[in-house]
# Entry
Amino acid sequence: MDRNLIESVRTSFLSRFGEEPVLIWSPGRINVIGEHTDYNQGLVLPAAIDMGIAMALKISRKGAGEWVAADTEEVYIPGAFQDIPEKREGWAAYFLGILQELHKRGIRPVNVQLVFRGNLPSGAGLSSSAALENAFIFGLNQVLELGLSAMEMVEISHAAEQNYVGVRCGIMDQYAGIFGRAGKAIFLDCKSLRSEAISMPLTDYQWTLLDTGVKHHLADSAYNERRETCESIARKCGVRSLREVTTSMLDALRPEITPDDYRKALFVLEENARVMQAVTAIQNNDLSTLGRLLYESHKGLKYQYEVSCEELDFLVDLAGERGVQGARMMGGGFGGCTLNLVKKKDVRSFIDSSIERYSDRFGSPCTPYEIKISDGCNLYHS
Ligand code: GAF
# Structure
C-alpha cells in the first residue's frame, strides 16, 4: 500500500470535513497469465499490486453525502438513494453502481462523505475501475457495518461494473483486488470461484510493466465481440461456457464455424492449459518455463484472439530481443501495459532502452512501473 497516498487523502478529508476518516487502500492488479479466460469461466492468475486507490470516508452527519476526487477537486453530491441517475459517465458511476447493487439487495446505506486519490494510470489495464468499486464497497462495509463477506463484496463490485457502468467484464479484477495477498498470485477458477494463493518468491526477478500510453478505440467493442463469439461457440457445443468445451468438441464443430472463430475458441482452451502449466512452473521455481508461457500467451493473444496492437507487439518483441525471461500484453488489449519478467540486474537497462526505442518508433515514451505483489483491499491504521 502507498502510505503517502493514504496520508494525503486523510489530510484532504480532515481539511474539508474536519473529522478523522476511516482509511481504505484498494489495489490494482497484474495478471501473470490467463487472459480473456475469466468470462469463459476459465482459469486466471492475477495478483494485487502496490499501486491503487486510497480512500478516506465517514458517515455524513449532515445527512447529505459528498464525494470528492482529490486530484481534480471534482465533487459529486449523491441524491437520495431512490434517485440514482440512470446513466453517468466518469468516476461517480463506479460508486453509483455499487449503491444500485446494494439497493437491489435491500440495503439502503446512509450517505457518506469521501475523498479519494489514486496512482493507477487509467486505461492501462491495471484495473483502476475495479479498484474504485472495491474501495467504495469495502469502505461502506466498514463504516456502515454491513457485515458483507469478501466474496459478497467481489460480487457487488462485479455486478456494479456490469449493470451500471455497462462493461461485460469477467470477475478477475474485482476478485484479485479483494483477495490479493502479498508475495502471492491468486490462482482463480472462474467457474467454481475457488482460489489458491500461490507463493511467488522471485528473488532475482522483478515484474516490470511498460505502459504504451495508448488505448485504441476498438478496445471496448472488441472485448464485447470476443465475449459474444465465445458464448456463441459454447452454445453451439450445447454447454454453458468454453470451460466445458474440449478440443475434440471444438474440432467436431469446425465445419460449422468460421476459421476465425475456431482460432479464438482454441486460444481460450490453450490459455487455460497455460495457466495450469504456469502454476506448476512457479511451484517448481522453473522461471524459464514460466517465461516461455508468457511469450506463448502473447502470441496467442496477437494471432489467434487478435486483441493486441502494434505498440504492445513492439514492446514484447523488444523484450524478446533483449533476452527478457517472459513478456506479454496484459488485460483486455488494444493498448495498456506489457508485463515483463526481468532479471533484477537487467531492469534498469531494459527500461532505458525500451523507453528510447519506443520513443523513436512512436514519438512519445512508454512509462515503466516496477511493481510489488501486495495485499488486497485493506483498512489503514496510521
Ligand atoms: C479486462 C476485464 F475487466 C477482465 O475481466 C478480463 O476479462 C481481462 O480484461 C482480460 O483477461 O481487464
Summary: The two ends are 12 Å apart (CA to CA). The mean pLDDT is 95.
